[in-house]
Write a structure and sequence with these properties.
The protein is α/β, with parallel strands linked by helices. Helix content is 39%, strand content 15%. The protein is built from 15 helices and twelve strands. The strands form two sheets. The chain has a seven-stranded mixed β-sheet with strand order 1-7-6-5-4-2-3, sandwiched between helices. The structure holds pyridoxal-5'-phosphate (PLP). The site of pyridoxal-5'-phosphate (PLP) has 13 residues, from helix 4.
């Protein structure tokens, strides 16, 4: 007879036969094997299966594959996905899977602040240099590639955070290929519903799934997606060894969000366009950054590579930093929070938050001024959002 203590510690999972309708959360660090032979077969790749959750887990892998299918929707070949512990770990894991000491990253000068700091402050210490240039200018990019054979990665973000400047993905992908340079695109702002970089020739897509893919502001995770088997294997090797794995709970929350991605992105996009048009006609607003506006410098390329223009916009007010901060404090519907892509409207002052550690000359040069306000437009009633901005801009 089994003793009392043994019943307490046993899992009792052997007789679980029902098929769950919803993805279960596998809260387990390891997986048990039927036999030593099965252990060997799974470890050596002869048989599919899980061993240890840092290497992969049914919850995490199911969601990673879903994102891979979405990013590869019109690619007609196998696409691989991996989830990571955050968007930053997706970026650092993907980049370190490609680069080694002495090599160089070529990138645009208007990236998300955290990515700029990663490249400038961390990678630099490990002998990986970064060249920042205006990647909207293809001849500048070509010159850099021509003059610097150490460039092995072209890293892009489009639309960029927070000025919504877009780069031409198809042209940059083919240019990079000519020089044997790998390409990574941060597709966080668009999600694969609005833009699919792999179909435009890009090698790897990374995401902060914390944002629109989750959509509800309740998990931190990232994703790396590629159709290149060799790059996938390299990223998986780096991921499991550096330990930047996602956890099952955050993957599960992400999966819940993914189910309503299309509904949310349609509404984010239509609300943001309406708000951008309203702000564009406001006397207190100097400039609106929304690539859906015909007067935005990236409108033509955005119309080609994006199906809608998304939920992100920023605007520069006719005033100083104190005025910008006052407007943010006056907003009642929009919440002042340092994230984006949630279902509700969020407001942020980039100069004192997301871009605080970016050199002020560098950020001013790309339009991230002290008087710039960023909005992540939610799915509320558009009338309430306009009314909220109207009262905040009146003083
Ligand atoms: C465009 C972009 N990429 C990456 C990140 C980093 O994502 P995470 O906070 O999930 O690490 C952010 C964060 O705001 C972002 O805006």
């Amino acid at each position: 007879m089994t003793s009392f203590e043994t019943i307490c510690v046993s899992e009792g999972t052997k007789n679980l036969k029902s098929v769950p309708h919803q993805l279960p959360i596998y809260a387990t660090s390891s997986f048990a094997f039927e036999s030593v032979q099965e252990t060997i077969d799974i470890f050596t790749g002869v048989k599919d299966g899980h061993t240890y959750s840092r290497y992969g887990n049914p919850t995490i892998d199911t969601v990673a594959q879903k994102i891979a299918k979405l990013e590869g929707f019109d690619l007609h070949k196998e696409v691989h996905g991996l989830l990571t512990s955050s968007g930053m770990s997706a970026i650092s894991t993907a980049a370190t899977s490609i680069l080694k000491v002495g090599e160089t990253i070529l990138t645009q000068n208007n990236l998300y602040g955290g990515t700029t700091v990663l490249f400038q402050n961390i990678f630099d210490r490990f002998g990986i240099k970064t060249i920042f240039c205006d990647c909207t200018d293809l001849s500048l990019v070509r010159n850099q590639l021509e003059q610097n054979p150490s460039i092995k990665l072209l890293y892009l973000e489009t639309p960029s955070n927070p000025t919504m400047s877009c780069v031409n993905l198809a042209s940059l992908a083919s240019l990079a290929k000519n020089y044997g340079v790998k390409t990574i695109v941060d597709n966080t702002f668009c999600t694969p519903y609005l833009q699919r970089p792999l179909s435009l020739g890009i090698d790897i897509v990374v995401h902060s799934t914390t944002k629109f893919l989750n959509g509800h502001g309740n998990s931190i995770s990232g994703a790396m997606v590629t159709a290149d088997e060799t790059l996938h294997k390299a990223m998986w090797g780096t991921l499991k060894t550096m330990g930047s794995t996602c956890n099952a709970w955050d993957a599960w929350l992400l999966n819940n969000g993914l189910k309503t991605l299309v509904l949310r992105m349609d509404k984010h996009s239509s609300n943001a366009l309406a708000l951008a048009q309203y702000l564009d006609n406001h006397s207190r607003v100097k400039k609106v950054n929304y690539c859906g506006l015909k007067n935005h410098e990236s409108h033509t390329i955005a119309s080609k590579q994006m199906s809608q223009f998304g939920g992100m916009l920023s605007f520069d007010i006719d005033g100083n930093m104190q005025d910008a901060l006052k407007i943010i404090d006056k907003l009642k519907v929009a919440t002042n929070a340092p994230t984006l892509g949630d279902i509700d409207t969020l407001v942020l002052h980039p100069a004192t938050t997301s871009h605080l550690h970016v050199d002020s000359n560098a950020r001013n040069a790309v339009g991230i001024t002290d008087s710039l306000i960023r909005l992540s437009v939610g799915v509320e009633h558009i009338g309430d959002l306009i009314e909220d901005l109207e009262q905040a801009l009146t003083f």
